[in-house]
Structures are given as structure tokens and as C-alpha cells.
Design brief:
Number of helices: 0
Largest sheet: 3 strands, antiparallel
Distance between the termini: 24 Å
Number of strands: 5
Radius of gyration: 17 Å
Strand order of the largest sheet: 2-1-5
Length: about 80
């Protein structure tokens, strides 16, 4: 699989770090991402899939009786706090 479609732009701001999906422009000569300010940016290949926490250790779990459950995804960029699924 071509890694060109897995490039993300890391935006470093005074408030924290944001990640944006990169788009190739001008016949794949440069990368672009929608940002709202000037600043410091880095491009990375996001080739490590995110990991999900286990809901439990049982072979079969009955979730009907639970009021809800939550997954806590993590990835190699630490960007899971902006995840919505």
C-alpha cells in the first residue's frame, strides 16, 4: 500500500498540538492542510494503526445490562483526545 495517503500534518501551537490530514497538491509536489494561523508544522506518515482498550477479559461479555461502555483509542501520535467514532 502506498503511504502517500497516510500523511498527516502536525501543528504545534501555544495551546497544544493539532493533527490535520495532509493533501497532496500540484501533481504530488507539495503537501497542504487547512490551518487557521501561521506557526510550526511537521509532516509525518501515520502508518501505525490505533489501538483500542479491552472491554474485559471474558471470552463472551453481555453488554445489554450495562448503561454504556467506552473505548479509549491510543496511537503513536497521542492524538486520541480528538477522536470521535
Amino acid at each position: 500500500m502506498n503511504g502517500k495517503n497516510k500523511i498527516v500534518i502536525k501543528e504545534i501551537t501555544g495551546a497544544g498540538i493539532l493533527y490535520k490530514k495532509a493533501m497532496w497538491q500540484n501533481n504530488d509536489q507539495w503537501l497542504s492542510a487547512e490551518v487557521w494561523r501561521l506557526g510550526t508544522f511537521q509532516a509525518f506518515a501515520d502508518v501505525v494503526p490505533p489501538q483500542l482498550n479491552d472491554l474485559g477479559t471474558a471470552d463472551t461479555m453481555i453488554l445489554v445490562r450495562l448503561p454504556g461502555f467506552a473505548f479509549w483509542p491510543t496511537d503513536n501520535f497521542g492524538s486520541n483526545k480528538n477522536f470521535q467514532g
